[in-house]
Amino acid sequence: MREVNWNNVKREAPKWFRDAKFGLFFHWGPYSVPAYQNEWYSRNMYCKGLEQNQYHEKTYGSLHDFGYKDFYDMLKGEKFDPDQWASLVKRSGAKYAGAVSEHADNFSMWDSAVNPINSMNYGPHRDIVGECTEAFRKQGIRTVATFHHQWLWGWFMSTDNEADVYIPENEKYYGPALPLETNRYIPYRYPDEAFCKSWRDKVLEVIDKYEPDEVYFDSRTCIIQEDYRYDVAEYYYNTRGIKDGIITYKQEDYPKDIGVYDIECGRFSSPKDFPWQSDDRLEDNITWCMVQNPKYKSAERIIHQLCDIVSKNGNLLLNVGPYADGSFHPDAVRILEEIGDWLALNGEAIYETRPFKVAAEGPTTVDDANYDVGKIQEQLDKGDAVDVHSDTLTAQDFRFTTHGDALYAIAFGWPEDGEFRIRTLRKGGALDGEIKKVTMLGNEGELAFYRKEDGLYVKAPEKKPCDCAYVLKIN
């Protein structure tokens, strides 16, 4: 293994990323065809006895006669319209977006010369990443390319000896046969040189062809040899010199100074002095892809989550999975539009903001949380995804952001007595100096207020300007 010098690829988060706050990405691939339970179907269908395996054999037949490769051409994408996707992103208020470039299943969603198993040669016969990149940029949306393909090492290894993954001519679809233990999070047998090279070359090809503004790596990237991980960062930042490009990573898969730390379905209890990202899902099932009976979180829940994350110096990258035909469920579209309506009115308190010295006030305790190695291993062991529960914020909870000389206090409820009380902004509290005026975004005119030793009191306007959360602007 070659020696590397990570100091050569240190990179701070660019201003666009710190200002954007909200992004969307889309899990779409052959796993969207069975749409059963979650996107780990491609792995779990090969694990005898798991529910997805039993469903597969009952619905499609034996693993010898109908394998994952047989879903490829069922991913027709006949309703895929990148301009509609871009319009949905724009309408939601998201500032950056991208389709999953490659999940763990060796199916590249771009026109790849590195990997013949791709969306041009199979399924929709279209360059999904390329078409999305072009459509998004036309609408002024920054692009993200997400990579999960380090999981391919051992992903398809089956407990069924007759499964099609062990037929030699199918190696191009599933990779070479490996010991079963390689499908653990940290295997004894690490990826060989050929696998690491292929992993790197796929990423470099996407960088060359599409110049994504963000290159996102899912967890388990740590199993790739260090020099190949370094090659990606060096090429992206220095050789190609992607202007304002940034890598995001999980766990300790990259050194902390070379990009932005990402916590899956995660949050922090307090503001951080470094920018970070949480990737989470709109889906209220424990899935990142479309499933047969989809259900979604409410707009209010996502808006509250976004406000909490932004107040602590983070971004939210939200996933929604389309159908196999490339269209979105009407409920998902409606909720994204509701989020967009809120941001259209209140985005001043989100976009381009920075944390206040205090992030939060209220009775709800928000603890540090992450879909960490323990939860990943639990999913590997049981075959079932696990959840990271988020706390429900109440009408007594506030979040704070700043921009210029303005402080924004975001209230998660409407006061029953007609008066907001913010203890953090009391006389002698966290806010120095005199308050000159208080307004509410979406409401005309100034609001009456007074300040005492136990809080800042602000008279609520007669009508709510919106739903979900209410923004007091304090100058």
Automatic annotation (TrEMBL):
A GO cellular component annotation in the UniProt record: lysosome
GO BP terms in the entry: fucose metabolic process; glycoside catabolic process
Matching SUPFAM superfamilies: (Trans)glycosidases
Ranges of residues in domain Alpha-L-fucosidase C-terminal: 395-474
E.C. number(s) listed in UniProt: 3.2.1.51
GO function terms (MF aspect): alpha-L-fucosidase activity
Taxonomy, superkingdom: Bacteria
Pfam families: Alpha_L_fucos (PF01120), Fucosidase_C (PF16757)
UniProt keyword Hydrolase present: yes
Enzyme class, broadest EC rank: hydrolase
Family membership: Belongs to the glycosyl hydrolase 29 family.
Listed name of the protein: alpha-L-fucosidase
